[in-house]
Write a structure and sequence with these properties.
Strand content: under 5%
CATH architecture of the largest domain: Orthogonal Bundle
Number of helices: 9
Number of strands: 0
Largest sheet: none
Helix content: over 70%
Structural class: mainly alpha
Shape: elongated
CATH topology of the largest domain: Tetracycline Repressor, domain 2
Length: about 210
């Protein structure tokens, strides 16, 4: 049993090493100009080893957001623990979203500038994995409507898109500007604007 678990653990670690190497290579060279050979070299494994975990370069490419979204959702749950009130949870989500991508710039480039604009993205398993954390946002919005602090005259999916659309635009602009400023610089201002737009009060601080 111990040997089996140990082998499984080593496989998981090696897979994660390959994915991290792929993120670095794709973010530097873009998908078209990257090769499995470059990724293998970066990961410190034989080229054939990568094919034990992924069918081809595209499979590896679309596996990246699946793994990173799991990480995002898992960490988000930890950050939300102990926070009461939907508005406070939204504020924490806004901060964590920007914090996560600030600390994962290579993944941010791969996701925002390549994966999201790929014509095959919507058909990939990766797209479905996004539903995990977007559903987390949806549940917070529903919670806020039940609490009577988030407006219920606007469709919850529209509110979710408002929130995610603004944050995605902020990350994309930061990337296109060469990451020359702190992504969290305007977090408080954006938080106030988003919360004010979603709330039944004009003063988000009244809800804290």
């Amino acid at each position: 049993m111990f040997n089996t678990n140990h082998r499984m653990s080593k496989k998981i670690i090696k897979r994660q090493m390959i994915i991290q190497a792929a993120i670095e290579v794709f973010s530097r060279n873009n998908f078209q100009n990257s090769t499995i050979s470059q990724i293998a070299q970066k990961a410190g494994v034989a080229e054939g080893t990568i094919y034990q975990y992924f069918k081809n370069k595209e499979d590896l490419f679309f596996s990246i957001p699946v793994e990173k979204t799991k990480e995002f959702s898992r960490e988000l749950e930890l950050h939300l623990q102990g926070i009461k009130g939907a508005v406070n949870k939204i504020s924490k989500f806004i901060w964590y979203y920007l914090y996560f991508f600030k600390n994962n710039p290579e993944y941010a480039r791969t996701l925002m500038l390549e994966l999201r604009v790929s014509k095959n993205f919507a058909k990939a398993k990766a797209y479905q994995s996004f539903r995990q954390f977007t559903n987390q946002v949806l549940e917070i919005i529903k919670e806020g409507q039940k609490e009577g602090v988030i407006r219920d005259d606007v469709n919850i999916y529209v509110l979710r898109q408002l929130l995610l659309g603004i944050l995605e635009h902020m990350v994309t602009r930061w990337l296109l500007k060469g990451e020359k400023y702190d992504l969290l610089e305007h977090c408080d201002e954006v938080n106030c604007l988003i919360v004010r737009g979603m709330s039944l009060t004009t003063n988000p601080h009244e809800l804290r």
